[in-house]
Amino acid sequence: MSSRNKRRLFLAAWLIALATAASIPALAIVRGTVVVGPQTYRATGILSHPLFAVGARVVLPRGSRAMVVSLLGPVDVSGKARDDIATIGAPVYLHSGSETSRDVFALGSSVYRSSNVHIEGRVGADLVPWSGRGSPGGPNWVVATWRYSGLGFAVGLALLLICTCLAVAFPWHTALVATSVRQDLARSMLAGLMGAFLFVFLVVPLGLSLFGLPFAVLIGIAALAAWLLGLTGVAVVLGTYLARIRRHEAGLLWAVVSGMFVLAVVGTIPWIGFVIVAFAGATGAGSLALSVVARARLPASEDVPRVPGETNPAEELYIQRVK
After folding, report:
1. Residue 106 binned pLDDT confidence (cut-offs 50, 70, 90)
2. In the chain, which ranges are continuous DSSP H helix?
3. pLDDT tens-place string over residues 158-217
């Protein structure tokens, strides 16, 4: 089989894998297993299938027999809940006469209990008495924004330390990513977006099964390493640009530290800062992927032994910047 046919077969296999992976969340949305808000999901009877909601309010008028997980959306429970109920960043309301035979969690919020409520399982949050009227525990956006900015800056400083260590440990790879980003920014951004899409539609379905969980963990670790190295390369590009503005030569470590400090400040922008930082790292990871693919496509005739002491243009650029 020729190399062209092998490449086509490999691409076809990837397309089939992507289609299969994408069909799993699509089927979950069609069947109502996944609900994306803002909206109110009201079960017509006893909820009999697992439910995952994002930004939506979940109402269980007659209880449930399956697990309910809600992200940034409250859950109203009436009747008997026979499985776990968990929310992240939103409260759980136990209405009068309701029963819970399993655990109830409200990460970052509280569980509000009305009168005549029977709880058998554990409660993983503050249990607050409730009159049954209104919707207490709603998010305070001013406080949440202030906390987010502080947390974003702390995470940015932690990333600064990690990226500095990566630049010290892998200086050549850092310079390679920075050079690729600088020379082909558009393709790096596109490759980063495609990589994020592949990550979501491959890792999430694999992580939902016991057989695919080890593969999901390995892919996640590799993706995290590529993202951190890509973020380090983008920080070098930003730091070099700042040095050019100040009209002085910047070494590799100075470029990484100054560039990552800028990204840490950007990360404090409420609600969109983390998106910008994540996209910067994805762009760097995309440039790394393009470099690996370009190196793999080199003909065998170009893979010749190198003369000791000889450097290519990219290495020359790195050596000049270190000096």
Report:
1. confident
2. 3-30, 141-169, 171-183, 185-207, 213-246, 252-266, 273-296, 313-322
3. 999 999 999 999 998 898 899 989 888 998 999 898 888 888 777 766 665 666 678 778
Burial of 83: CB neighbours in 10 Å, binned 0-12, 13-18, 19+:
middle
* The dihedral sign for the CA sequence 26, 27, 28, 29: positive
| C-alpha to C-alpha distances, 267 to 30, 91, 150, 152, nearest whole angstrom | 35, 27, 10, 5
Which among 292, 278, 294, 321 is positioned nearest to 171, based on CA atoms? 321
Percent of the chain with pLDDT over 90: 23
Dist. CA 124–CA 106, nearest whole Å:
6
Q: Look at residue 318 in the predicted model and tell me its pLDDT.
A: 46
One-letter amino acid identity for 85? I
- Who contacts 291 (Cβ-Cβ below 8 Å, separation ≥6)? 176, 177, 180
Domain ranges of the chain: 32-129, 141-298+312-322
State the pTM of this model.
0.62
Task: Report how far residue 75's alpha carbon sits from residue 60's, in angstroms, rounded to the nearest whole number.
Answer: 8
**Which pLDDT value is given to residue 77?**
92
Count the neighbouring beta carbons within 10 Å of the beta carbon of residue 258. Answer: 20
Q: What is the pLDDT of residue 233?
A: 93
The SS3 of residue 243 is: helix
